[in-house]
Amino acid sequence: MIDFGGKGKYSSPEFTWDVAPTALKFLNSDKLGKQYENDMFVGDIKNGNLYHFDLNQQRTGLLLDGPLADKVASKDEINQAIFAQGFGGITDIEVGPDGYLYILTFGEEDGTIYKIVPTTTGDKGQVF
Prior knowledge:
- The chain is mainly beta.
- It has strands spanning 2-3, 9-10, 21-26, 40-44, 50-55, 62-63, 82-84, 89-95, 101-106, 111-118, 125-127.
């Protein structure tokens, strides 16, 4: 560990991947289903994907299994964490007052805001 003059400490990355993360939000709502409550969602500008990660019980690290258990994701392995895709570049993620996730994107012409709501099967989110 490196000490920054008593103002912070460096620690090694918890996860390594080849995307350009631009937004991160903890979903403090059960509107997408209890299985996603308090989980972490990350958007990227490079691929236009929304990624979902479970946290450990102490909320101090990611719960990664399968090919992601080594905390290094190849281009193919990161597909395991994709929650939704096809947004263009994601620039921001917010939880609205209604408890749903909102995704702000940057497109060729202008930005778009997407609302993520559960599908009728309750599996993953659906974009509206």
